[in-house]
Amino acid sequence: METQRGFPHRVVIIGGGFGGLYAAKELADTAFQVTLIDRRNFHLFQPLLYQVATGALSPADIASPLREILKRQRNVQVLLAEAVDFEPGRRAVILGDGEISYDSLIVAAGMQNHYFGHDDWRPFAPALKGVEDATEIRRRLLFAFEAAEREADPAKRAPWLTFTVVGGGPTGVELAGALAELARDTLRKDFRAIDPAESRIILLEGGDRILQAFSPCLSRQAEKALARLGVGVRPDVKVTRLSGGEVECISAGTAESIRSKTILWAAGVKASPLGEALARRTGAAADPQGRVLVTPWLHLRSHPEIFVIGDLAHCAGADGRPLPGLAPVAIQQGQYAARLLKARLEGWTPAPFAYRDWGNLATIGRAAAVAEIGKLEFSGFFAWLLWLFVHLVQLIGFENRLLVLIQWAWNYFTWNRSARLITGEVPSRREKGD
Amino acid sequence: METQRGFPHRVVIIGGGFGGLYAAKELADTAFQVTLIDRRNFHLFQPLLYQVATGALSPADIASPLREILKRQRNVQVLLAEAVDFEPGRRAVILGDGEISYDSLIVAAGMQNHYFGHDDWRPFAPALKGVEDATEIRRRLLFAFEAAEREADPAKRAPWLTFTVVGGGPTGVELAGALAELARDTLRKDFRAIDPAESRIILLEGGDRILQAFSPCLSRQAEKALARLGVGVRPDVKVTRLSGGEVECISAGTAESIRSKTILWAAGVKASPLGEALARRTGAAADPQGRVLVTPWLHLRSHPEIFVIGDLAHCAGADGRPLPGLAPVAIQQGQYAARLLKARLEGWTPAPFAYRDWGNLATIGRAAAVAEIGKLEFSGFFAWLLWLFVHLVQLIGFENRLLVLIQWAWNYFTWNRSARLITGEVPSRREKGD
Question: Are the Cβ atoms of B146 and A422 closer than 8 angstroms?
Fold first, then answer.
């Protein structure tokens, strides 16, 4: 047992997302020496990132500095560094500029965007993962309307006003819904030459229905809600090629081309490369998405001192299928791993990890959502209120919650989205192809 | 007179800062066809930019989309474009991608940073002008503390904890004060290996006192307030060379070198290159700072249909000296130019422009400021409250005011600065030299 190694016992946590952060918090007031490593200096509330991409919230509203969150927890040190590899024999994590040794290791490095072998599509279709992705998507969305306003030729203008979202999971649905509201309501009176409400918003889904994690009935509800917002949902469409301004796809066996200057990618994620590195160094197995297989106690079979949690872990749920990559799973796993470390100290082993499923929520625009809570399914305004409440209480930091609540209330009553800034490199119409 | 050209009368305004925006607003409910051109899609409240640079506010809190501000003013079209030159003979403005013709032109292109012939210093010492500058400075400030936390060697650590602000005008004073509070209060408990309160913050001023636009008495008050925050104010210091990590300067005839990884430039601005282009094309005179000389009616002597307002204009005040580059000057000039256009329509000419001076304010940290209002001079907490009130009511948009007020109140009572995000390119310690 680890406890026999005595103290100080160093716990290294890789990743300041939901899993890593809640593991660190659960280790408060213990004798463990905790080091939390992240490439970024903040915890990001990913579920609201699409609101940054569509100009409703600012990055800082959904991000909190890790040091701020953990400042009162004196046994935690936060390190701004990038973990790149492992040496399990020496119990060391290799960093981009140095290394750090551990007695117990919790790897919570999460997922990254995945283009299914088409990394060349990346520049044409940004995906929503980090803060920079969100501001880049915001820039492209807003710039498309600006370019359309200045384009006199209707044939050249149409692709600027066509927006394609690839992937009908929760992120794609939320992005398409928010984008439709941006075009139809927020920007309605902003332009003189174009009517943003005439934009085409297309949601492409490879499977036979959107929101496959929900029941077919809720998928249909979501599709109806999107149709009301003017989003064209197209299931059973496989994208075959993306370029700057065109989506080529196959639909019902027929090749098709969609001229669209703005393409957003919400089709796939895969495990952080740290998962592969860990599997290689420890002999652990990984699934096709690159997630590392763990025991029911969330550690590696060969290395009980190494835990993998959150999106990076392949952990079977009660139904035998791997648990989904959701914030509540990561939070509960982080807390579980920390509690298991504390139990080991006391010389006992807790029951295996069991995910407590509080339900599943996705939002569609400003006043509709779908929810699945146990056997209960519902949609519409009440589901949206629930979505709003759940996300608001989860935001870390009282000030963030207050600011986001005010912005939501303001947006709701005025249709406004005040964070509509085109920042970063200023594009010219020529650069963007044309 | 312009009016004899009849309608439609096209007014082109270059620049969506204070001058251009208030000119456009003043032309509401008239028959003028107004086009407002800006490279950015938002109006930026420059006086609070240093709060973004020090992590207290988000960019969107101090920026409002120009289209949003002007959406109800149907005679105004906003164009996201870059003006690059003029052809006054044809009454045309040349854009980066096209051109636009005018009957009357209002040029309000403002100032840009100026390194006095040392453009090679730019990468070592960013200046505070746009939103990207502010987030870049924020990134450097926060990253310096992160690098110091990871540096075990005290000799190598010290330059990371030394911050140099070059230039003791209002921007330099505000930056240094906010930076001192960031280090001494906000970050105080955030680190484990370093004590941010031990940071050295140095404010270098070339003249014999800081805040030269204020009275010597208020300069001394500001210096004392800065000293209380731990800022070392050094007048009569001329910078001779900047590099990544070192400031070489001459003080009282002696050469000196300051090892400082973070250097901020607040020493100089000069006119937008559009001023020079306009002077060249029209034969107008420009002053050494590149500002274009205008008549007491704010137009060019040779071209009464071309107005220059705001920071870009050299316009003599009541004391014969050019008016300072302040927001109130630009606002009043924008309104004046618009009123003059309306008067011309009616066939009369108003009295020359007269600046109504409401006073001068600068803030030092979270609860001190200096103020000069007419013959009244004061400093301290009351001046700070006044500063807060004046800036809050000037912020465009009710939501912005409410959010900023909450963040200020929150920051004030908790010493917090919640927008402490290191975004953009993630640096490594090696990249930054060392």
Answer: no
Nearest-CB residue to A60 (from B58, B71, B79)? B58
Tell which A residues from 7 to 36 touch B, by Cβ distance under 8 Å. none
Alpha carbon dihedral B368, B369, B373, B377, in 10-degree steps, equals 70
Q: What was the pLDDT predicted at A425?
A: 59
What ipTM was estimated for this complex? 0.86
Mapping DSSP onto H, E and C, the string for A61-83 reads HHEEEHHHHHCCCCCEEEEECCE
Q: Do B77 and A407 touch (CB under 8 A)?
A: no
Catalytic, B181? Answer no
Quote the longest CA-to-CA distance of chain A: 76
A146 close to B (CB below 8 A): yes
pLDDT tens digits, B263-290: 999 998 899 999 999 999 999 999 999 9
Q: What is the pLDDT of residue A408?
A: 79
d(Cα B110, Cα B126) in Å, to the nearest integer? 19
Radius of gyration of chain B (CA): 23
| Beta-strand runs (E) in B175-284 | 200-204, 231-234, 237-243, 246-251, 254-259, 262-265, 269-271
Average pLDDT, chain A: 90
Catalytic-role residue among A174, A181, A205, A372: A174
A431 part of contact set with chain B, CB < 8 Å: no
Q: How far apart are the C-alpha atoms of B119 and B278, rounded to whole Å?
A: 23
Show residues of chain A in contact with B61, CB under 8 Å.
58
Q: CA angle B20-B24-B28, nearest 5°?
A: 165
- Cβ neighbours of residue B6 closer than 8 Å, sequence gap 6 or more: none
What whole-number distance in Å separates Cα of residue A127 and Cα of residue B335? 44
Closest CA to B255 of B280, B277, B233, B238: B238
Chain centre distance of CA A411? 23
